[in-house]
Amino acid sequence: MAQYMDVHHGMNGITADQLQQAHQADLAAESAEGVHFQRAWADPESGTVYCLSEAPSAEAVQRVHERSGHRADEIHEVPLSV
To answer: What are the tens digits of pLDDT across the range 2-20?
Structure first.
């Protein structure tokens, strides 16, 4: 399965608790699309959030985020990692 890094903009001031809640919402919705969210990072100052997942497609990642209430602004396949 492919890995994807998605990016959310405009989440200025996000707290660790809010990031955890958003990640938990993704985890609760992921199985319907065959997606597994592995990790999330945030920069509260810039309002940027990054999520790493394994998924069958970028569209599946987006559908999970839409169900969770936080649509991704960008989704990038990650073909190489170490």
So the answer is: 999 999 999 999 999 999 9
- For the chain, give every domain's residue range: 2-77
Neighbouring residues of 53: CB distance < 8 A, sequence distance ≥ 6: 3, 4, 6, 30, 35, 36, 37, 38, 61
At 59, the pLDDT band (50, 70, 90 cuts) reads very high
Question: In this predicted structure, what is the pLDDT of residue 13?
Answer: 98
CATH topology of domain 2-77: Alpha-Beta Plaits (3.30.70)
